[in-house]
Amino acid sequence: MIETLENKIISELISKAQIAREFAYTPYSNFKVGAALLTAEGEIYTGCNIENAAYSPGNCAERTAVFKAVSEGKTSFKAIAIIAGMDEITDYTSPCGMCRQVLREFVNPKDFFVIMAKSTDDYKIMTLEELLPMSFGPSSIQ
Ligand code: THU
What we know:
Elements: H1 7-21, E1 32-39, E2 44-48, H2 61-70, E3 77-85, H3 97-104, E4 113-119, E5 122-127, H4 128-131
Parallel strand pairs: 3-4
Antiparallel strand pairs: 1-2, 1-3, 4-5
Bound molecules: tetrahydrodeoxyuridine.
Tetrahydrodeoxyuridine binds near residues 58, 62, 93 and 96.
């Protein structure tokens, strides 16, 4: 278990991701994703995936949560919980490459935790550094 995230906050993030997943708009894939993003200040922003008849404009749950937070002035994050599946949650879902890169913009990859959950007591945690090694970030273009 990663020491720097308390069990209580892990459970809260997963519960909020489960609730956000209920709002997933997925008429094309029926794959429903919920995410809950913890800010450095301790607030939680949630997101769901939002699909589109033209397919490409669809947005992932993780990026919905990040964009909600950033659009309200929050740009420093500690962790994100993700829960996904069709009807049953059968697997741990990891963020797609585009979402990893969007998260990377705002965090130190070594200090940001990705909680991939099947339920509040069945989850895996990895750092963003593990999921996106040798990443390209803001300092790469300075
Ligand atoms: N999706 C997410 O919301 N997050 C992920 O990390 C993986 C994929 C969404 C996009 C699309 O609406 C559906 O899941 C199937 O790919």
